[in-house]
Write a structure and sequence with these properties.
By secondary structure, this protein is mainly beta. Helices cover about 10% and strands about 35% of the residues. The protein folds into two domains: about 100 residues, no CATH class; about 140 residues, no CATH class. It contains three helices and 16 strands. It has a six-stranded antiparallel sheet with strand order 15-14-13-12-11-16, with no helix packed on it. Strands 1-10-9-8 form a four-stranded antiparallel sheet, with no helix packed on it. A four-stranded antiparallel sheet has the order 2-3-4-7, with no helix packed on it. The chain is globular and about 70 Å long. The N and C termini lie far apart (about 55 Å).
Length: about 280
C-alpha cells in the first residue's frame, strides 16, 4: 500500500517557532513571579499614618508626617538597607526616609524577609515579603491559553497632542492611581475596529496597556490584564501580542494595590489569549 509523507511547510515552522518563543517567555515570567521575595511572598499590607504604630511582620514603630516616614528601632531590632545596618549599636535609633515618588519604593531587609516601603495612591505602605509565605510555597503556576498567532495583531500608535493624566481606580477600595497616557493604539480584531489607551511603559518608548475583554470574569481575571507593547516603528506600527497578556498581582492576593483599566479599555470582544485565572481563583468560583 502506498504511503504518503507530509512536508513541513513554512507556516508550520513559523507556528512552531511562535509557540516555542511563547513557552520560553512564559516560563521566564513564571520564574520571576515565584521569586522568593516577589509579590507572592507578601504577608501583610500596612497603610502608614501619623500615629506611631507597630506593624505585624515588621520590626520597629512606624509613622509618616510631611511626606517623610520615620521608624523607631528598639533594642534588638534590625533593619538593613543596601547592606548597611540601620541600628548598628543595637540600642534605640530613629531612622527617617525622605519623600518617595508615587509608584516608587525602597526595599529593606529584616532577617529572611524583605520589607517594602512604597507610595501608592498618594499614601505610604509597608509590605513585608517572606519566602515562607504559604501563597508562594503553594503556588502551582498560572494556566494560559495555547499561543495563537491570530492574537498577535498589528496596530497603529496615535499620539495625543500632549500626554493626558488619566485617573483610574485600584484593586484596593478608596485609592486612585494617575498615569500619563501619551496616546492610543488602534487595531482591528474579529472584524471590529478597536482602540486602547496606552500608558508609558517601564522601558523608554514602550507602552503598558491595561484592559478587560469578554473573557474577563469567566476564564480570565475579572478586574484587569496587562500587556506590554514595544516601541512603534517610524510609521506608528506596533504589535499587540495578546498571547503575552499577564495577570497583575491582585489576581493572586488581596494585598496588592493594582490599577484598574480606564473605562475605554474594556474591549467588547473575547480575547482568548494570554494568562487565565490563577488556579486558586478558579477554585473559589
Amino acid at each position: 500500500m502506498p504511503t504518503s509523507t507530509r512536508t513541513e511547510s513554512n507556516d508550520d515552522r513559523q507556528t512552531a517557532a511562535f509557540a516555542a518563543n511563547w513557552n520560553d517567555w512564559h516560563a521566564a515570567h513564571e520564574r520571576h513571579r515565584a521569586d522568593p521575595h516577589g509579590f507572592l511572598a507578601v504577608t501583610h499590607l500596612h497603610w502608614l499614618g501619623a500615629k506611631p504604630a507597630r506593624l505585624d511582620g515588621v520590626p520597629g514603630i512606624w509613622s509618616v508626617k510631611d511626606d517623610a516616614v520615620t521608624v523607631v528601632l528598639e533594642p534588638g531590632e534590625s533593619l538593613i538597607r543596601d547592606g548597611r545596618e540601620l541600628n548598628p549599636d543595637g540600642g534605640t535609633v530613629t531612622v527617617a526616609f525622605g519623600p518617595i515618588a508615587e509608584r516608587d519604593g525602597i526595599n529593606l531587609t529584616a532577617g529572611a524577609a524583605v520589607v517594602e516601603l512604597a507610595k501608592r495612591g498618594g499614601e505610604y505602605i509597608v509590605r513585608p515579603r517572606h519566602p515562607e509565605n504559604p501563597l508562594l510555597n503553594e503556588y502551582r503556576g498560572t494556566p494560559a491559553y495555547a499561543p495563537d498567532p491570530r492574537y498577535a495583531v498589528e496596530g497603529t500608535y496615535v499620539p495625543f497632542d500632549r500626554e493626558r493624566p488619566t485617573t483610574v481606580g485600584a484593586a484596593v477600595a478608596g485609592i486612585r492611581h494617575v498615569y500619563n497616557a501619551p496616546g492610543e493604539i488602534r487595531f482591528r480584531l474579529d472584524g471590529q475596529d478597536l482602540s486602547l489607551t496606552a500608558f508609558n511603559g517601564h522601558s523608554p518608548g514602550t507602552f503598558s496597556v491595561l484592559f478587560t475583554d469578554g473573557t474577563s470574569g469567566r476564564t480570565t481575571y475579572a478586574a484587569n490584564r496587562s500587556l506590554t507593547v514595544g516601541a512603534p516603528d517610524t510609521d506608528g506600527t506596533v504589535v499587540l501580542d495578546f498571547n503575552r497578556a499577564v495577570n497583575l498581582p491582585c489576581a493572586y492576593t488581596d494585598l496588592a494595590t493594582c490599577p484598574l483599566p480606564p473605562a475605554e479599555n474594556r474591549l467588547p470582544v473575547d480575547i482568548e489569549a494570554g494568562e487565565q485565572l490563577p488556579y486558586e481563583r478558579q477554585a473559589s468560583l
